Each structure stands twice: as C-alpha cells, then as structure tokens.
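hiii so my PI (J.) wants the whole complex modelled not just the main chain, which honestly fair. so below is everything: two entries, each one labled with what it is. i double checked the lines twice but i was tired so who knows lol
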Amino acid sequence: MSVTAPRGFRASGVVAGLKSSGARDVALVVNDGPAAAAAGVFTANRVKAAPVLWSQQVLRGGLVRAVVLNSGGANACTGAPGFQDSHATAEHAAAALSGSAVAAAPEAAGTGGRFPSIGAGEVAICSTGLIGERLPMDRLLPGVDAAVVGLAIDGGPAAAEAIMTTDTRPKTTVVTGAGWTVGGMAKGAGMLAPALATMLSVITTDAVAGPAVLDEALRAACRVSFERVDSDGCLSTNDTVLLLASGASGIAPTQAELTAAVTQACRDLARQLIADAEGASKEVAIEVVGAGAEDDAVEVGRAVARNSLVKTALFGNDPNWGRILAAVGTTTAAFDPDGIDVAVNGVWVCRSGAAAEDRSKVDLSGRQVTIQIDLHAGPDEATIWTNDLSHAYVHENSAYST
Amino acid sequence: MSVTAPRGFRASGVVAGLKSSGARDVALVVNDGPAAAAAGVFTANRVKAAPVLWSQQVLRGGLVRAVVLNSGGANACTGAPGFQDSHATAEHAAAALSGSAVAAAPEAAGTGGRFPSIGAGEVAICSTGLIGERLPMDRLLPGVDAAVVGLAIDGGPAAAEAIMTTDTRPKTTVVTGAGWTVGGMAKGAGMLAPALATMLSVITTDAVAGPAVLDEALRAACRVSFERVDSDGCLSTNDTVLLLASGASGIAPTQAELTAAVTQACRDLARQLIADAEGASKEVAIEVVGAGAEDDAVEVGRAVARNSLVKTALFGNDPNWGRILAAVGTTTAAFDPDGIDVAVNGVWVCRSGAAAEDRSKVDLSGRQVTIQIDLHAGPDEATIWTNDLSHAYVHENSAYST
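here's the output for the full assembly
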C-alpha cells in the first residue's frame, strides 16, 4: 500500500503526458492530518535541481501538506525560470487542494470533509528525468489537477508507479509499529549516489511526531540505508527523501521506536533500488569488519563498490580479490596491507594480504554476492550495497539520454 | 628508439615464458654511464606490490644501474615470499651484469669494455600482470640471463614490447635537447590511475644531472602528465615511473630545460596510454578553465573523467551536458552553480548553468572529444585526459583476469 498504508494519507498517480511512453508521470501525496509534520534529506550535489531548492525552503518550516512528484523531466540546470516552474507547480497544487473534498479519508482531522486552505509553502516538489530541459508546464499543471481529483486512500501503488523512470518495477514498503505504521515509496535505478542513493523517496507515518523527531529519525535511517547504497558512484542533482507524519494513529512512539521503523522502511527501499539498478546482473553486499572506526568501514566499502575493475570482474564471475585489495589500498582507513583477509561468497581467497583458499572454490553463478573484508584494525563495521558493471549498464546509459 | 635513444643505455626484451601467449615478457634496461643517477615516482596505493617496495628502497640511494621489468605477473599481494622474489631477481641481475661485456656500447665509461661490478641495491624491479600470484622464478631468472645476453644499444623497442600486457601497441618517445636526449617507454592500458596513471614507465637521458635534479624534473613532469590521465579511476598496486641519467652527453642542461624535456616525454607517453586504453572508443580531453586554483581545475576535471554516466554518454555520442554539470557539482571547487559554461567539441551547450546552444549541433562521431568547462571563478586551468566507458571495456575487464 506504499505511502497510503498509514492512516491520514491519500495519493494518486496520473498520466500527464510528460513521458513519451504514455505511462503515469505525475504523483501526488497529501497528508490529511490531523498533523502535518515533516522532515527532508536532500542531495549533497552542489548543482541542485530547482525542485530541491524549492523543497529545501518548504522543509525549513517543518510542515508539509502535499508532495507533487513528476517523472519525465528533472527540472535541473534550468536556472531561475526552472525555479519559477517549481514554485508555480506548488502554487497550482495548493490552490487545487485547498477546500477540496476529502470524503474518501473519513479519518482525516475533519474540516467539514474539506482539505484545509494551504499555501504553496506547504507543498514540496520532486522531479526526475533528463537534466537541462524545462518542464512542459502546459502538461504538468493539468496533470496536477487530475492528480488532485484522483487522490485516494489506496492510491499509493499508482503514485509509486508514476515516479518510475528507468525502474523496471515500483518500490514500496510498509513497516508496522504498535498501533502505528510507516509506509514508503522510492524510485531510482541509476545515479545511485555516494551521499544519497535514491533519486526520490517519500516515507509516511501515522505516528504522532514533531519535525525534530522526524528529522532525527530520517537522518539516522538514511545514514545506514540510502547512503550505504552505491550503485555507480554518481550523485544526482535531484535526490530527495521526505518523511511525513499525519499523527492519525494518535500514538506517539519513542524516538528509538520511530527511528527503527523508518530505518527498516528505508533499508527495504534501498535494497529494492539495488535489486533494480540499471543493467545489473549482481546484487553485491560488501561487509567490512574489523575496522578501527565506522567511517573507515564505510570508506573501504565504498572504494570497493566504486571500483570499475572489481565491478567488471564480478560481472565476469571472477573472484579477483587482487582488485579488491587494490581498491582497499586507495583509502585512508586504518589497516596493515599485510593483515587484510578477503572472502568472496564465503571462501577466504585472501588471508593476511596474500592468496589463501583456492579461488576456483568461489561460486559466483548466482545473483547475490557477498564480499567480506576483515581489516583487523578494530571492532567497527559497515555494509555497502552495490552492483556489478555490465554490458547492460553501458547500453542503458549510452543509448538513452536520462 | 625508446629508452636507448640517449647515449649510455642498452636494453633488451626477451621471451621468458611468463606469458602464455609466448610473447616477450622480460625487459632489461641498463645504464652504462658514466653516471648512474636516478629518480622514481611510485603508486600512492597503500597496497604496494613487492617490486614497488623493493624499488623504493633502491631509489633512496639515487643510483640505478639496471631495471628489470616483467609482464605476466604483478607480484603484488604475495607477502614476504614475493618481496624475496623481487630481491632475488635483483641479485640475479646484478650478478649476471657484473663484469659482462659492453662492447656494443663503445661510448660507455670504459671499464675495459666490462660492465662494473654492481650489487642488487643498484637494480630496480618492475612487474605487471595478475595480482595475488607468485612469479615463476624458474622461468624469470633464466629470462633475466637471456635479457643480459640480448642487451643492445638498439634494444629499446624490444624492451617496450616486453612490458606490454593488454596494450595493443608499445609506447615509446624521444625528445631531443641541445646535444642531449630524453627517451622513454611505458605500458598501461588498464588501471590508469587517479594518483599515477601509468603502470610502468622508464625514462632515460644522457644529460648530466644528479638525483635531486632528476627527482624535481620527474615529479614536475608526472604531475602534469601521468597524473592528469584518468582512464578508469583505478589506482594500481604497481605503478612506477623511473628516470635514469647516464651523463654520456657530457652536457648539463638547466633544471628548467631538463624538466621541460622530461615533461614533454611523459606527456607524449601519457597520451599514448589514453589512446590505447582498454576498450576505449573515445579519447577525451577535459579542459577546465576559469578555476580559482589549479587544484580546483584538477578536481573538477577528474570528477568528470570518473563519472560513469558521463563516460557512457560519450560512448553513445550523446552530448549530455547535464551529467557533466552533475559531476562538477560533486566537487569542492570554487564555482557558482548558476555560472558554469560547458562546451562539447566546441559547441557551448550550457551557459550559466542552463541550456544554451542546440545540443544537436555537437558532432561526436570522431574519436577525439574535447569538453571545455569554464567555472568563471578565477584564472587557473588544467586538462585531464580520459576515455569513454564502452562495451569493450566491460568485456575486456570481465572476461580476463588481469
């Protein structure tokens, strides 16, 4: 049920004609309340898309009533006119939503069955697609109108579908707490990023929680989920993760409970992103243990995850541990080069920095690959998820402008 | 004439049976003097191959009489026994060379037509090939003997051939000064690196110059040549560049003259590496101008050079400037995201961070590509050379263990 699993949310996904394929391309998620607290995490890329700049402003208030998401265009590198397009979209959505009927959401904090009157500053915007082109506003704004009309308490799956680009399937999640629920959707199959892996994700909950609690939960969750995914090392201009709380359950979990549930939702979505990464034939977990610090483990895992020679070797079913060691050697992590152990799918092919078990014992025929790296430098650890580098990746990213 | 273009050098390249192909795989370069000053630059990878650890020790003395190079095995991640193999190779070469006839090099600083008696500490070792396996010493040492016998003043081309791995052609260069010469060879077609781009290179000169002058010349040259090449962002365990001076010309150029000649030789070799990079269909020059500092220009150029989405777009003849901007945005360089101009093959497709000239005007059908990035943040600039990311790269690096 995606973002509409928690009470107090409606969503929709419609065809606005932004995608030439004719598939759904505008999604709307609204928070019917009673609360409308929110938190957001955005791309670390300094070249930020207009919707990111807009939504960062909106999130500063900690209050979000609606999120408009579109595929079919990133509205990035579009200058001041592009920012005005994001602003106009928020204005348009706010006007269309204000006073609209919410009969379909009977549990909503009754304002006489009507959505409250809201301003553009309560509407976040997310966009994904080709960089450098303006959005066709003559199609987008009617699409927003249609999305408002289409809002439904079971609209989560349609919304998840509408934000897909090169994704082959929608990504959704539901995590249940004691009387409260977390739901979520995400898209992203390319440009999975070092600092923030997903292009777009909206997480919802009916828990009672204010902006500060949501912010802490979302940052903690992203740090060990989306930020541990590194498919191709490329950092998008548009990455956005939003967490919205309606409070409709009437239950206020502890910070720890909320953080745990949001983390589980984000991890579930992050794994779905890796599973559907562009042209990947392997899903690779790089488990770094024995690190002197968690940051060291993350640095080592990421260096291995981004190494083209490691990734092509995995595509070729070659347990080339020498390339793994060469990647580890590029980091500043604490380790002794002659003290590193490496296992591929459970076979310790490298002990103390040199050949150990016979590499021919390694079975790489399956889709799931686990690389274990023991730095023997301390008690800390981290796992990074990545993919192989395949012909299909090259094909998908060379044949299409995305 | 490669490394034997300057006077005072002999070289050879022989078949020792390290490569299953039966091609030449052991090279020897000797400095017949009268001087034997040397400098070296080595990989920044913390996982260093045994020959790198050995040669770093040798170079500390600033004196190198001979260099043994082998393809067919990197002798990396081989622990203490691997280091002992490098040591034994140097011992073996020193013994075979000491007192051997140098009739073929009449201009050599006469010791009665005999090579002087040298120790292992005057012999540098370079290896390239698969990581993680011991070298077959029973083949390598007889190969060294054959290489000593084969030494010739026109042996440079054979030596350049013997160090090839996945290279499709040998790389050599000659730069002439006023009465003195610089010669060189290099190999490297994969693992072209962020911190040092070539796997192996030996530069020779008959100029009169001491170790400190050579060191300054070599570091300055590498900084703007091999270190500006970034084919796949992968840093090798074995990268080594050596500069040997025989003094046989009797002419001592100024530091500036020597640096300029060595830089020209290194740049020529670096360009040959990019031209022959594994599976590349494009040679790409990324010219960053208007930078606030040279380091900023290098950081931006490298971020673009390593971006898989930029590289696959180039393979697909797609002037996808949005991906270029997204890569620039990941850096810490000084710039205003709304103030960047980008040209692809001369067409300014992006001005002030947004779309400008029609991207369809860009002709990417040729092999040479120039990307110009103007940061509008200062007077500094740098050029990074890279390649596209092609099906052939994936094929070559997934189908073979290298």
